[in-house]
Amino acid sequence: MRPPVDGDLIRMLASFADLEIPEGDVELVAASLTNVLSDADRLARLDLSEVEPIVTLDPRWD
Amino acid sequence: MGLDDLHWRSIAETADLLRDGAVTSMALTEAVLERIDETEPALHAYVGVMAESARREAEAADALFARGESRSALQGIPVGVKDLCETAGFPTSAGSRALEGNVPTRDAVVVRRLRDAGAVIVGKTVTHEFAYGQDTPPTRNAWDQRCYPGGSSAGSGVAVAAGTAYGAVGTDTGGSIRVPAAVNGVVGIKPTFGRVSRTGVFPMSPTLDTVGCLTRTARDAALMLGVMAGRLDRSDRGAIDEPVDDYAAELDPDLTGVRIGVERAYYFYDAVVPDVRAAIERAIGQLEELGATIVEVEIDDLDLAVPAGMAVLLGDTSEWHQGLLRARGADYVRETRGMIEVGELVLATAYVRGQKARRVIQDRVRSTFEANSLDAIVAPAIPETTMPLDELSVNMTGKTVSGALSGFIHHNFLANVIGIPSVSIPAGFDSDELPIGMQVLGRPFDEATILRIGDAYQSITDWHARHPLQFEVAR
User: Fold this and answer.
1) What's the pLDDT score for residue B323?
2) Which pairs count as long-range contacts for A47-55, CB under 8 Å and 24+ apart, including other chains?
3) Residues with Cβ < 8 Å from B205, sequence gap 6 or more?
């Protein structure tokens, strides 16, 4: 079970990202990140082991 | 319709008038500039009007007509360009104070193509800040100035609906062309990923962003997209090198042989309001009367398109903003800044998982198209009509669907997540006389078929011929 995303966690993650999040944004960011992570968890129902991610690489030289 | 009502004419009709000498591009441009002056206090569709350069372009177009030369159907036609696209020598701020005073030295490729085709660019249309859809722009819905204008190509949708542009460039990363088209009662096409160059357009995500256009008819969209589409050369890495169809030549009101899928579980769920549901059901019946075969289909895992796309969108957008956020963070709207901050904290594994899930969803849709020999899927463009601005939730990540950006994304993100083309076509009005949009999704690089379906539908309906007539300054 993932611990709740709270203000302290946001501040800690932001410090690792060298990002200064204004105090007024912290609650908004915590709520949004909670939703994003919860949504991303839904992807776990897919078997992605043999799947190539969508990326763009054109190896040709001009 | 007389020449007094020129602003309601389609691009196709106006191109005929220009070619026949019944009107000059200069007269058309002056009329549009005057109409912009009249309507802008109520609508705020434009962030900047390019009157001086527009008059020069109109003069050049008229000179071409005088010599009997025609570069395209857009020659001499006034159009708007979303303020996310660079315009040489004219401010491009992407709707943000963080870019205030930014004057590009080059045109975006799509702007260059329009200019080369003889179009007259009358101004830059309002976008939500960096196209994120989180702020409240000054733009007001063309049909009710108390209401949400759609986004992020808000100004483009309103300008076309209000007759202050015959067409307008928009960009679409999760519905930003189709949503303003739907809520303002105009046509908006998000082409296949890579169909139109993104070079010179402020990015959100390199694998989700598309550039397209908004017009009043599907035929006009065919004409405008035909000018915008294609890759200039190998240095233009913002586009994919695929042949461009003659979209207008392929329009045909007879849909015999066209197979259209309807996916009810994902697109006709509880949050789709009765007026919208009824309008789209009626439209499906009309498409059948036009000769199309309607096929009920079920596609697994469509509900994963939003989480997959969102993990990618957040990471991509925040990576681009890293430097600007640290230098000018205080100049961002708080809600936009919040989303960009969130994107910096999303796990890299979630990002890669999102990119893998997109491949799975692409396979699901492709196999459904192939198994049923489908040419398109039809759905509501959004689950409802527009709403008063104070009733809109800009929460993209929440569970709320009704009255929220997340509901619009539910209907629209799939086309971006797997890169297929999609167009919103006016399909009626609700009981409050607000426009309803029908979405038609197609096979990759088959814009011709979805425009054909839209044009055929417009050949037997008149929703696109109804216009907002009164504009009041909202309190």
Assistant:
1) 96
2) A48/B353, A48/B356, A48/B357, A48/B360, A51/B356, A51/B359, A51/B360, A52/B356, A52/B359, A53/B352, A53/B355, A53/B356, A53/B358, A53/B359, A54/B207, A54/B355, A54/B356, A54/B358, A54/B359, A54/B362, A55/B207, A55/B355
3) B173, B312, B313, B316, B317
Instruction: State what percent of residues in chain B have pLDDT above 70.
Output: 97
* Residue type for position B317: T
Please, what is the average pLDDT of chain B? Answer: 95
pLDDT grade for B399, boundaries at 50, 70 and 90: low
Please, which residues have CB within 8 angstroms of residue B231's CB and are 6 or more apart in sequence? B197, B239, B240, B241, B242
Cβ-based neighbours of B335, under 8 Å, separated by 6 or more: A28, B134, B135, B394
> For testing the chain A interface, which of B325, B340, B356, B406 should be mutated: the one with the most A CBs within 10 Å?
B356
| B48 in A contact zone (CB under 8 Å) | no
**Facing B360 at nearest CB: one of A19, A48, A56:** A48
A23 touches chain B (CB under 8 A): no
Q: How do residues B25-53 score in pLDDT, each as one tens digit?
A: 999 999 999 999 999 999 999 999 999 99
User: What is the pTM (predicted TM-score) of this model?
Assistant: 0.96
Here the ipTM equals: 0.91
Q: Is residue B180 within 8 Å of residue B170, measured between CB atoms?
A: yes
Residue A39: which of B307, B352, B395 has the nearest Cβ?
Answer: B307
Cβ(B393)–Cβ(B399) below 8 Å: no
Q: Considering CB atoms only, which of A10, A33, A54 is closest to B358?
A: A54
Domain range annotation of chain A = 7-40
Domains belonging to chain B, first-starting first, are: 3-304+347-465 (3.90.1300.10)
Q: How far apart are the first and last CA of chain A?
A: 50
What pLDDT digit, counting tens, does each position of B82-117 carry? 999 999 999 999 999 999 999 999 999 999 999 999
Mean pLDDT over residues B368-384, rounded? 98
Burial B6-21 (b: 16+ CB within 10 A, else e): bbebbbbbbbebbeee
pLDDT given at position B5: 87
B contact test, residue of A43, A48, A60 with most B CBs within 10 A? A43
Residue B342 to residue A33, Cβ atoms within 8 A: yes
| Interatomic CA distance for residues B166 and B246, integer angstroms | 20
- Extended beta strands in B1-77, E state: 46-49
Confidence (pLDDT) at B454: 98
Kindly determine whether residue A24 and residue B339, on different chains, have CB atoms separated by under 8 Å. Answer: no
Contacts with B301 from chain A: Cβ below 8 Å: 46
Q: Using a CB–CB cutoff of 8 Å, tell me whether B345 touches chain A.
A: yes
Burial class (CB in 10 A: 0-12, 13-18, 19+), B243: exposed
Tell me which DSSP letter residue B301 carries: T
